[in-house]
């Protein structure tokens, strides 16, 4: 979402849109939320108005060590692989059932 003022362009990220329900306009930069970009800033970004180029991201600390993170991501990946295998089996069952219903045995 873009708000033009006489002095700058305010570029809002997705999080900001829900936050800014009224005519409220932030006058300061909030990382991950909005950025008060000058026309020079926009020119520097080759006139791209993609919010990601301006607002940045907020990195939230989860308190995990690198080893804990790796362990969790590997565990989640194992779970995803099992779910993908189950989904593939279900695809076969569904295809078979559709063929039976259609009479294409």
Overview features:
single chain, 105 residues, mainly alpha, 2 domains, elongated
Offer a concise description of the structure.
With 105 residues, this protein is mainly alpha-helical. It has helices at 14-19, 39-44, 52-55, 66-102; strands spanning 2-4, 9-12, 34-37. The protein folds into two domains: 2-55, no CATH class; 61-105.
Explain this structure to me?
The protein has 2 domains: 2-55, no CATH class; 61-105. It has 4 helices and 3 strands. The model is unreliable at 1-9 (pLDDT under 50). A 3-stranded antiparallel sheet has the order 1-2-3. The N and C termini lie far apart (54 Å). It has helices spanning 14-19, 39-44, 52-55, 66-102, and strands spanning 2-4, 9-12, 34-37. The protein is mainly α and 105 residues long. 50% of the residues lie in helices and 10% in strands. The relative contact order is 0.11.
Blueprint (SSEs and pairs):
Layout: E1 2-4, E2 9-12, H1 14-19, E3 34-37, H2 39-44, H3 52-55, H4 66-102
């Amino acid at each position: 979402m873009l708000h033009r003022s006489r002095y700058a362009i305010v570029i809002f990220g997705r999080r900001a849109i829900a936050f800014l329900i009224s005519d409220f306009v932030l006058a300061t930069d909030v990382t991950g939320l909005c950025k008060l970009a000058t026309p020079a800033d926009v020119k520097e970004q080759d006139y791209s108005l993609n919010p990601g180029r301006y607002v940045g991201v907020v990195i939230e600390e989860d308190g995990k060590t690198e080893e804990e993170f790796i362990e969790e991501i590997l565990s989640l990946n194992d779970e995803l692989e099992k779910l993908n295998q189950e989904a593939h089996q279900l695809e076969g069952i569904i295809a078979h059932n559709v063929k039976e219903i259609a009479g294409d045995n």
